[in-house]
Amino acid sequence: xxxxxxxxxxxxxxVAAMLLPMLALAGISTLAMEGTLDRFTGTAxxxxxxxxxxxxxxxxxxRVERNGLYAVWNPExxxxxxxxRAKAEMVAAFDSLQKEALNEERGxxxxxxxxxxxxxxAFDVFLATRPENLELDPSAQTTQQSQVxxxxxxxxxxxxxxxxxxSRADMLSEYAAAKALEDRTRTAVIAIALLGLLIAVAGGFVxxxxxxxxxxxLREAVGVLSDGALSHRVELDRRDEFAExxxxxNEMAADLERSQGDLAHQALHDALxxxxxxxxxxxxxxxxxxxxxxxxxxxALVLIDLDGFKGVNDTLGHEVGDEVLRSAxxxxxxxxxxxxxxxxxxxxxxxxxxxxxxPGQALGVAExxxxxxxxxxxxxxxxxxxxxxxxxxxxxxxxxxPELLRSADLAMYRAKHGGKDRVCVYDPSMHGAADDRLRxxxxxxxxxxxxxxSLHYQPVYSLDGTSLVGxxxxxxxxxxxxxxxxxxxxxxxxxxxxxxxxxxxWALDEGCRQLRHWQxxxxxxxxxxxxxxxxxxARQLTDSALPTVVAEALxxxxxxxxRLMLEITESTMVSDVAATIGRLEELKKIGxxxxxxxxxxxxxxxxxxxxxxxxxxxxxxxxxxxxxxPEGQALAEGIINMARxxxxxxxxxxxxxxxxxAALDRLGCRLGQGYHFARPESGADLGHRLATAPRxxxx
Length: 699
Ligand code: C2E
Ligand code: MG
Ligand code: MG
Fold this sequence. Notes:
- The chain is 64% helix and 14% strand.
- By secondary structure, it is an alpha/beta fold.
- Strands 8-9-11-12-13-14-15-16 form an eight-stranded mixed β-barrel, surrounded by four helices. A five-stranded mixed beta sheet has the order 2-3-1-6-7, with helices on both faces.
- It has 23 helices and 16 strands.
């Protein structure tokens, strides 16, 4: 873009444009005035010059005539001599005038000179012929008259000469007056020019003050703002368009500052709870570590994970989940002391940075948090009971922020897996555990190919003590170094790493193979009537290939579909109800039976239970454990009656003694499994059991 003149240059040009015409006007008027005066004095001089010689000549002509007349009347020597002198003087005057006269004036002078010559000639002739031609009577009266004429002519000549003097003086005084006027005019013009200059300079100054300076400050302000200093405000001590522009600029900067602040807040805070987010916590953590090292403070990071939150979200929806998270955040806030920072790391995970004087103080905060989560979260008249798993890690002066966070995470993980609703303090051995987990995952990848996995079978009996009706297949991993690893340890690893698909498919195939084998090798009705239960994980349910995998396993080993029971843990069924129902119905179409495992540990509502196409409910071991107490008995009775009402078969898990068995029997539960009957055992051992003890025998 073409660069135009700066405002400063424009102001200078405007002032110059104001000034120059004034100076030009003053100059022109001075010159014009001087010219007029010059012309006036020239004309006056000329007039004087022209008039005075003529007056003088006239006087000389008069003198010649008067002396001529006198000589006519008094022809004396002296009179004639006077006449001749006057004549000579007049002729000389004419001659000199003739020489000086300009061309155009020469005619005039010549004609005047001619008429004067003729007068002189007339007198000369008259004087020469006077005695003969003229009979004159030089009486006393004529002499007297001629004397009077002579006097009058002299007076007239004098009057003429006086008039000449007077007119010259008048002219001079007029000239002087004109000169004085010229001087006054020049002074006035200079004064006006100076005044104009002053006004122009003042105008320029005002322009600079009112235009250039505010513009400069506005430009400066825009520069500062564009450099990112949004708190800068432009101050213009005036009320005009520039001030309006400045106000608009300030408003814009304030808006920008506000929205930048909002953005910064959004970037660093969790939108749901308003707590600082992971980024801000990381930042505060680094600052606190530096401060702690300097002041020798005991810095602790407390990590909190809500137990059972996923169930709330899955069962009651995300809106209720959000409400619970907001309430949990509020409870956390109430546990803080001045200077502590609470943050939401994501999901149901929170962190608190505690600047404590002693480890005891930090642990006090952790315990308070634990207690604060226990009271029910009430929603729509419904009491939701959640607990928290809390991990605490202390800064040891060497660890950085991410390391401290990882340590607290490990401690929290340990709290969760140690039974939830508890506080665990980090100790370095936990790092080994985390490494173990990684190693476990890597070992599990090859376990199937290496033949390290096997299935054990736990028999299911009818509680009236008559028969063995089924077996539950339970996976076992015989690790080459670590020995037997329980499924509670490696199934979650398989789920998280995606290995569960292959493991689950193998379990189905292996279970069916084993059942076929028993049916083929063990004589009697027990083996042929036997039902096989296989556990499914939530991840398998999301796989659309599952029905095909099941159907193929059945087909491959020639198993009737109704002999296979698939168990799905309750808490995993309700995450996506519609999809789960769809998949279960596909499985039902094949002809297999379905059971809800660990019933009572999740949040299935009766409405869901009715919708799921299930056949069996497996009452979780925790209810069987408490069955000896009146409340436990009431709960178990409730579940059994409800199952009956829904035409579902209840089956009790984890029966460990005869009392439990008797209680369950009394309540009308017909099927059960547990150490009281038999522990899970190898396929071969169970084959023996099938062959040798088809009738119920308590272990
Ligand atoms: P589950 O399906 O509820 O299996 C019952 C668990 O209770 C088994 O533990 C069994 O050994 C144990 N148990 C049975 N009776 C008693 C008793 O009287 N007292 C006590 N204390 N325990 C008893 P296990 O074999 O360790 O399996 C644990 C869980 O691992 C299973 O719980 C099941 O959820 C899962 N699991 C096992 N095998 C598989 C599998 O092939 N696939 C999948 N997805 N999960 C499996
Ligand atoms: Mg099971
Ligand atoms: Mg179970």
